[in-house]
Amino acid sequence: ESTAETSELAGTTLKVAASPTPHAEILNVAKEILAEQGIDLEVVEFSDYVQPNLVTESGEVDANYFQHTPYLDSFNEENGTLVSVGAVHYEPFGIYPGKSDDLANIADGATIAVPNDTTNEARALQLLAAQGLITVRDGAGLTATVNDITDNPHNLQIKEIEAAQLPRTVQDVDFAVINGNYAMEAGFSVGKDALATEDASSEAAQTYANVLVVKEGRENDPAIQALYAALTSDKVKDYINSTYDGAVVPIF
């Protein structure tokens, strides 16, 4: 079966727009798998979040891998006809120790810093709720704010701070809930330093998983399907797990 597939796709070139980390790095592992099928994967790196969708929309590239579905949806509302082929990974939020490091015996009145922007604050509150530290109103989901906290048995003080500032202010609070990318940039190990992280089955992980995206109508192209199969292979899973120390988690 594989030989038939090889001959059919041999000589195909795929251009994929991606963010440098971790997306382009993960694609370069998929590139080796595709090479065995005669498909040449060309990874085009972009440091901004606007160009990858524009060049996919215009057909300059065949696909992109840099964004989650809510971001894709907002692009499509403006001017796009792009679709997700499927999810590859998510970058989990973690609860990090500041002045305290024991979530099980959290002090009454402990301060917890969370991001102050809508999406990230909701993710932070849902992670605290998943640890049983607070209760968030049913249905608040990923739009939850501090006003949706229905039960706060430890009288936790929630401090809202700009997401990028959290790693610098963690020592001033008992705990901080930090985005995976900011934690990693600040030198925190998601795998070793975080006291708790988002579960792959959580609403946040499912919603904010990073997806492979193509122009509508191309999602069933054999070459695109081969690319998605490579991105969700055991080889890529092993690479992600051994490279990113828990900051990038496969969701396949």
Describe the protein in words:
With 252 residues, the chain is α/β, with parallel strands linked by helices. Helix content is 38%, strand content 24%. It contains eleven helices and 13 strands. The strands form three sheets. Strands 2-1-3-12-4-13 form a six-stranded mixed beta sheet, sandwiched between helices. Helix 2 (20-35) links the parallel strand 1 (13-18) and strand 2.
**What is the number of helical segments per DSSP (H or I, 4+ residues)?**
11
Helix content: 25-40%
Which stretches of 5+ consecutive residues score pLDDT under 50? none
Radius of gyration: 20 Å
How far apart the termini lie comes to: 24 Å
Give the tally of β-strands: 13
Q: What string, H for helix and E for strand, traces the elements in order? A: HEHEHEHEEEHEEEHEHHEHEHHE
Q: Structural class, please?
A: alpha/beta
Largest sheet: 6 strands, mixed
Mean pLDDT over the full residue set = 95
Shape: elongated
What spatial order of strands do you see in the largest sheet?
2-1-3-12-4-13
User: Strand content of the residues, in percent?
Assistant: 15-25%
